[in-house]
Amino acid sequence: MDFKNSDTIPGPRTEDRLPHTAEAAVKIVIVGGFGVGKTTMVGSVSEIRPLTTEETMTQAGIGVDDNYGSASKTATTVAMDFGRISITDQLVLYLFGTPGQERFWFLWNGLFEGALGAVVLVDTRRLDVSFDVMGRLEERGVPFVVAVNTFPDAPRYPVAELRAALDLAEEIPILDCDVRRRASSRDVLLTLTRFLHSIAMKGALT
Predict the structure, then answer these.
(1) In the 8-state DSSP scheme, what is residue 50?
(2) 0.85 cut: is pTM over it?
(3) What's the half-sphere exposure (Cβ side, CA atoms, 13 Å) at 142?
(4) CA distance 115 to 132
(5) Across the 206 residues of the chain, what is the mean pLDDT of every consecutive 10-residue run?
């Protein structure tokens, strides 16, 4: 999914400096399989010019990278994507998009370090690639929400069926999104922040 066709923020991007009103900065990782829309999400929602590490795909990836559903994809993230969004005047999220190909997963450990939460992007045409992603987050104790990217040709399923297919606990939020749209991507991040807040409140009461 190409973020060149995604929403852009009107006017120039803000400076890289944190807003002077910011009281908390939180690291969030955006993970998922190859071609699920991680770079697009960071690019559409970031209030600063996003940093990307995309490289042109070559013949060397044939037979190595699973590009099912992404045949038109011509570039791929090889290290990370980075962006920033202010949820409120006080709360800022730093967004780190991970590479999707399994051969780059060794980079995930560093990207997960210090992350408070995660967004798992899912393509319903390739649900199986989500299990390893969620498993790694669970191993590291990183809370996450699941966002189903609505590709035009992807099948749609009721939330209950998706939850069962992904073996998700009832408390983990799952929602549809269009990562090309800033409002939709922002809604996912708001859902994640509310989920993290609910976890923190439960911890405070125990």
Answers:
(1) P
(2) no
(3) 28
(4) 18
(5) 58 59 89 91 94 57 50 53 91 88 60 92 94 91 97 93 95 97 97 96 82
